[in-house]
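Morning, I've got a small favour to ask if you have a moment. Here's the protein in full, and shout if anything looks odd to you:
***
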Amino acid sequence: MAINPTGAGLKHYLAEDPGGPVVMLNLLRFAEGGRETYEKYSSAVRETFLPRYGGEVVYAGDGSTPLVAEDGQDWDAVMLIRYPSREAFSKMVADPEYQQFTHFRSQALTEAVLQPTRPR
């Protein structure tokens, strides 16, 4: 299952850049014990990297029983994170210091969705 952005995915993401801010929808499914491991990653992102790259958490919450969904479409956690631009997000994930924390994210999750959105 997909967990982390790839170089090809980031290249495509930047090529489609309409300009302006981006709100990244994060859908997360945790491995057993992964919530605690994810918090190590999440703390570093919130405290260091979002401020460094102009990002902010718009919403973070735990998933619940889906009202409308196919089997397997329920998620453990949902986040919306706003970045000033697609480039800011791309620079953050390329930051060598940030990359020192990504193993926590990889270990914590069994599946993830990172869906860029933009305001209408």
The radius of gyration is 14 Å.
